[in-house]
Design brief:
The protein is of the alpha+beta class. It has 4 domains: 2-180; 214-313, Beta-Lactamase; 339-401; 402-574, Histidine kinase-like ATPase, C-terminal domain (Heat Shock Protein 90, 2-Layer Sandwich). The protein is built from 15 helices and 12 strands. The strands form 3 sheets. The chain has a 5-stranded antiparallel beta sheet with strand order 2-1-5-4-3, with helices on both faces. The chain has a 5-stranded mixed beta sheet with strand order 7-9-10-12-11. The chain has a two-stranded antiparallel ribbon with strand order 6-8. One of its GO terms (molecular function) is phosphorelay sensor kinase activity.
């Protein structure tokens, strides 16, 4: 008894010593954590200032009205808060002589250049030949790097000191603990604790598995001469009743050969293969019941010498998929019928229109002078209306006739297409005194006829909406771009390279608010009496670009001009069109 009391007394004293050592270690760690947090704040402020400096170098007020105006607003906010961040950093390093020198230098240089950076970005500074600023901007970045490295070196030094101290304390703590606790007591308490924890975990796991919406089964292989001849159901959660068609508890411990739901030989073969190959398997199981038939999706995985099966009923999902497939087929048939009807109706409409126009012109030539002013005006309106209707029907036929077949895609020289379009519009170009310039365009996989329609409509659109008092200047440019570099363009395929083809003119332009609307069918932004057209041209452009898995974007300003950005995929793997041809 005295030995036990003495042992506990010695153990108690040793444990007190361990507590004291742990307290010392805790205080050291706490002090290190506080100092580390302070250094990390300083490093983060340096990083933030670096980011704000880069934002200030990128930002330019000239971009605020562009399509990326929202992005440049973030850069402007960063630039505006740079000085405040420097003041915060100055407060953080108030007790660091070397850091104070760095921050003061940065603050002086920043105040010297920040007002200029709010008005001009780096590119604009280059154009204004203010090269002397670049050296000081570089100096700010070097000061940022130097300040960060000072804090990082201090962190490493503190960490090394803490590690040395903790190693000594830990070594002494372990030694005292070994003396304080005997193997018997440690084993006893450890087993007692583990036993309680194991029971809790079993109850917790059971509750989790039974609340799962998926059925879960674990089956152990039954072997005869090392060959799997059957499986034994070891565990089944509550949701398994869907597959077993009974209370799972009544089947736990039984072999598959005794359970009706597992009579399917293909299920046995699949599970045996999972054990043999150690590869998970996905399969479908049909459970035939008295009144109905259920379908289950099963996932089978190996666990020791058995399998774990997770499953859910997908009967309704399969029925829905089948109904959806039927509806899609019916919809495709309806679309084909509507296209045939629209095509036939448009053709049939042209014949009476030709007669109306022919007789209208005949009346104008033979009876025009016999009509009074009102009659002449009405006859003119009839002829004009038939001309507009004829043009509308032709445009509708062109729009509905834009089909996409894989075999129509071929390597196409865009320069040849553009030159042909300019020749077709040569008379109109001369009448408008227009100047058309273009860069060398690439070759790409495309449908030549459709690209011709695209270029024709864009050039014709610029000529139509040119200014009366200013010769039109239309410029066509092209360059390859990565989708990540034009993230503001919605719909591009991530990680792909595109040709960015830009049609830019100095015509009457349009309000950017209507940039999406102009691509809609029959949408017009201008008076049809002043500007001829059916409102289909740009809709046709969008459909052509969509057929080529591309994107078209409009950018305009009233009285200044318009730009149309076309993004066509560069990779030959994109020459097969998407299923969006009838959008």
């Amino acid at each position: 008894m005295r030995k036990i009391v003495l042992s506990f007394s010695v153990a108690f004293v040793l444990l007190l010593a361990v507590i004291v050592l742990n307290r010392v270690t805790y205080n050291n760690t706490k002090g290190y954590t506080l100092r580390t947090d302070h250094s990390n704040r300083i490093i983060k402020l340096y990083d933030r200032i670096g980011n704000q400096l880069r934002s200030a170098e990128i930002f330019s007020p000239s971009y605020e009205q562009s399509a990326a105006g929202g992005l440049y607003a973030v850069y402007k906010a960063d630039a505006d808060s740079m000085v405040n961040t420097l003041f915060r950093l100055q407060k953080e390093v108030i007790d660091r002589k070397e850091q104070i020198t760095i921050v003061d230098s940065m603050l002086f240089l920043t105040k010297r250049h920040i007002d200029v950076l709010r008005k001009k970005n780096i590119l604009e500074l280059i154009n204004t030949r203010e090269d002397w600023r670049f050296g000081e901007l570089l100096q700010i970045q070097q000061l940022i790097d130097r300040g960060s490295k000072l804090e990082e070196a201090l962190l490493v030094q503190r960490r090394a000191g803490l590690d040395r101290s903790n190693r000594q304390n830990n070594l002494l703590t372990v030694s005292l603990a070994v003396f304080a606790l005997s193997i018997i007591i440690a084993t006893f308490f450890s087993q007692f604790y583990l036993s309680k924890k194991s029971k809790w975990l079993e109850g917790f796991l059971e509750s989790v598995l039974n609340t799962s919406q998926n059925g879960l089964l674990h089956c152990r292989a039954v072997r005869k001469k090392k060959e799997i001849v059957d499986f034994k159901l070891v565990y089944a959660n509550k949701a398994s009743s869907d597959l077993l068609d009974a209370d799972p508890k009544t089947f736990v411990g039984k072999r598959w050969s005794e359970i009706p739901a597992f009579k399917d030989a293909s299920l046995f073969t699949a599970c045996a293969n999972v054990i043999a190959t150690q590869q998970e398997a996905e399969l479908e199981h049909i459970q035939k019941l008295a009144n109905a038939e259920k379908s289950f999706a099963l996932s089978v995985a190996k666990l020791k010498d058995g399998v774990t099966i997770s499953f859910y009923e997908n009967t309704d999902i399969k029925k829905t998929a089948q109904e959806l497939k039927k509806n899609i087929t019916a919809l495709e048939q309806t679309n084909r019928e509507l296209e045939e009807y629209a095509y036939a109706a448009s053709h049939d409409l042209q014949e009476p229109l030709r007669k109306i126009k022919t007789f209208g012109i005949f009346l104008k030539e033979s009876q025009y002078q016999r009509l009074d002013d009102k009659g002449q005006q009405q006859l003119d309106k009839i002829i004009q209306a038939t001309e507009r209707m004829t043009m509308l029907i032709k445009d509708l036929l062109s729009f509905s006739g834009l089909k996409t077949k894989n075999e129509e895609f071929e390597l196409t020289d865009l320069n040849e297409i553009l030159n042909n379009v300019l020749q077709d519009l040569e008379v109109m170009i001369e009448q408008k005194h227009a100047i058309v310039t273009h860069e060398r365009l690439p070759e790409t996989y495309a449908i030549p006829v459709q690209i011709n329609q695209l270029f024709y409509n864009l050039v014709n659109n610029s000529l139509k909406f040119s200014k009366a008092d200013l010769p039109l200047h239309l410029d066509v440019s092209c360059k390859p771009v990565q989708s990540k570099d034009i993230a503001d363009v919605v719909g591009l395929n991530p990680g792909e390279t595109y040709y960015e083809i830009i049609f830019s003119d100095n015509g009457i332009g349009f309000n950017q608010h209507y940039a999406r609307q102009i691509f809609e069918l029959f949408k017009r932004l201008h008076d049809k009496g002043r500007y001829a057209g059916s409102g289909i041209g740009l809709s046709l452009c969008k459909k052509v670009v969509t057929n080529h898995n591309g994107i078209i974007v409009a950018n305009g300003k009233e009285g200044v001009g318009a730009q149309f950005y076309i993004y066509l995929p560069q990779s030959p793997s994109f020459k097969t069109p998407s299923a969006q041809e009838d959008e």
